[in-house]
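Structure ticket #2291
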Amino acid sequence: MATASVSFKSREDHRKQLELEEARKAGLAPAEVDEDGKEINPHIPQYMSSAPWYLNADKPSLKHQRNWKSDPNYTKSWYDRGAKLFQANKYRKGACENCGAMTHDKKSCMERPRSLGAKWTNINIAPDEKVESFELDYDGKRDRWNGYDPSTYTRVIADYEAREEARKKYLKEQQLKKLEENDGDEGGENVASEEDEEDGLKIDEAKVDESAQMDFAKVEKRVRTTGGGSTGTVRNLRIREDTAKYLLNLDVNSAYYDPKTRSMREDPLPDADPNDKFYVGDNQNRLSGQALEFKQLNIHAWEAFDKGQDIHMQAAPSQAELLFKSFKIKKEKLKSESKEKIMEKYGNAASEEPIARELLLGQSEQEIEYDRTGRIIKGQDVALPKSKYEEDVFINNHTTVWGSWWKDHQWGYKCCKQTIRNSYCTGLAGIEAAEASADLMKANMARKEAVEDEPVRNEEKRLATWGTDVPDYLVLDKKLLDEALKKEGARKKEEMDERKRKYNVKWNDEVTAEDMEAYRMKRIHHDDPMRDFLH
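Resolution: structure written out below.
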């Protein structure tokens, strides 16, 4: 039901309401109609169809689910800038004393102050401005581009295009002038050579319009097109016939290609001829050019900071680069000075012999051999970069670092298999002792488990009435037990009434089994709830 206000209903009314809703859902009863005469879907949940209490809705409706706060008076229009309405021929009462417009006063006038205002001269009456007043909605108040005319940006584009055309025209004139000067210096009498033909071709090529040339650096611009706004696209310089890097080597054990970053760090064809390869892996970019210089700059900043200098690559990059340049200059200076000292002392025998041709060409005999999986069999491995933290530091006679061994969710040393950080290395003897201790512990635990599994035999003990073990030969005489009970009863009465107690008391310390049984039977148990009814 789509009612908004929920009033109190009796149990019978509530039952009828549920039956009506079920009938509407089944199609047996007509659907509920709102205040506008529209049917309400009976399958809408109650938490959606029920209106909030503060709306005070008396009739079923779904208006609270619609944009019921919308006001048709709201608009997203903007002021008509510079629009004029009416221009009078003479001054009117209540108009601006300076320009003569009726839409503002002299204090708010934006025109240049006249020596004699329009009120006194009655000439050059300014037209009335178009004054608009409208109420903006929530989005209109916060729209920073409201009222902006996109066509005004074409003037900025035209300005830049005019500058670009002027630059191209100037460069073309300079190129033609330079080629003509070179052509005039050679003279017309000399025989035409290959250089003259090339210069002629350059002149002809320069005269050709740039739009007809295959200029890959040309920028194609689109302004207010269906494909989007102002965009600049550069022609792709990669030939579409080039083989993708992940197709250079289809072996699954070759260099790994990451499809997310589209990177392949290792060389996919390490055994191929370097002259025939155009791609050697992304690591080549890290080991050449400015990437290597930036890496050296970071390492220098870390080392300088460890030695106490106040230097940080991210906080002050200019300072770090300046210090690195000065460091390289000082290093080269010290290196040259030490080299000169050594040459002055021992001489330079290397300069007497000619340098080998392979050294001049930058070649070497270094050979690296790989197996089918890409691992190095012969040759020098690629040096792994080290971080600014200490590495390969062995303490307490250990031959491996902490964390080189893992067992049972614990880190340890691989050399002695100990899991205590500051322990002293015991070597193979410690490993054997630990294994023996573990085996002994396992044997003890197995023995303990075997003992615990055996059931414990509990022997039932026969206790006498007075608390001791009943011997097998003990047999109570019934007649003696009756006499002992009578004797115990007389003793109890004597204790209760001291007048019957005799002066001379005879004491017999010989206690028989019947006497003990009679005492136990006549004894009062204080925790017995029936003790008051015994006597």
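Closing remark: The chain has a mean pLDDT of 79.
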